[in-house]
Amino acid sequence: MAYFVVVDYCKGNLRSMQKGLQLAGAEARVSADPAVIARAGAIVLPGVGAFADAAGFMQTSGQMEVIRERIAEGVPFLGVCLGLQLLMERGNEGVPSPDWMEGLGVVSGCVRRVDAADERGRFYKVPHVGWNQVHCKDETDARLAPLFAGIDDGSNFYFTHSYRAEVTDQQDILATVTHARSFPCVIRKMNAFGVQFHPEKSSHKGLRVLQNFAAFARSL
Amino acid sequence: MLTKRVMPCLDVKDGRVVKGVNFINLRDAGDPVELAAAYDLQGADEVIFLDITATHEDRRTVIEMAAHASEELHIPYTVGGGFKGIADIRTMIAAGADKVSVNSAAVRDPSLITAGAAAFGSQAILCAIDAKRIAGAGDRWTVFLNGGRIDTGIDAIEWAREANKRGAGEILLTSMDRDGSKDGFDLALTRAVARAVDIPVIASGGVGVLEHFAEGILDGEADAVLAASVFHFGELTVREVKEYMASQGIPVRLD
Description:
heterodimer; A: Rossmann fold; B: alpha/beta; 10 helices
């Protein structure tokens, strides 16, 4: 099949993601060029930087428009960390309050700061950094298989973030993680997936997620 | 729930692992990235590369190592040592390091932590503190620089608080009294710092046996434990350490 593109919005190093996809058997190219994204067989939006910076760059560079079109056409898409958050309608990280910045708008809802206290008022550290358990809403849900085939419910993945998605339609949430409160960490709309953790930093389980996604993308 | 982390630390000079490494089946036991990848297979949660290269000119090799690690390593890694300013930090992060660890440069100019956290996020900035107990003064420690050769006279607990306030994401706390001793962590020091800050503390210096790792978490109240020689010499594997910690009721990643 055609190549996978790792979308570069010029905020950081994307080699570990590219290499992870290559190990999964995909021909992965890093590019910021909307024309390269337009011809890719699958799109990976990595997680580097803050929502407003990334969304701003994507908007002015023309990436936003082409990615929206490709997702609507059913092209397989994987958003990682900030890439999951960019699937949402809007976010306010890096935007002067009370303003919001527009995201891809593929999944209904917004992006908010991770809570620092649970329902009993106990304190939690933010950013949420480290290995935490991913809880599948329904392990048998076939919609989860393109990422989680062969991965046990409750497996640990590596997280590092201060913001989280607030998803309107519970149907779009496939798995959650708990830090102070439970929030979505795997979401899906059509063939667009988002994961809040970093598969490229989550050792063999993370590589399995990338392998699963690559196999899914090739099967379409 | 976030798990407690086990982190092997590799001393690197001119891009090569220093200290004798007696380790299983490595093509090149001196290659820090290959050694780190072996620790990943054992279940290490993160690794730290500590650059002890003497001169600034030789920084090129450690930057190349960081770039190589971004391709070969599938767990987060920190590079520490030798950062003089924000430009050095930027170069290392651009090369692919997930985090940098600052020590002497931050003591000399604490605004380095503020600037680093603002530019790359708190999660990317570790503040390493080398602390030594003041003889005859009870539970009081001062901050040392240059591998324990210079006593700054700065109170270690106060400096940890200051680093926290300035935006450091974690404290890497080494007891200079215990480092290399195999007598276990300085638990009073670890606990005092852990209680003084609201960011994770990585306990370092002194582990020799399995029990020490669990003590660091349970009595020292650390969020992570770091060790070097017990892993490098094959005395313990990361897996053994984590299984022991789990048997003591500590949440660790074993999958």
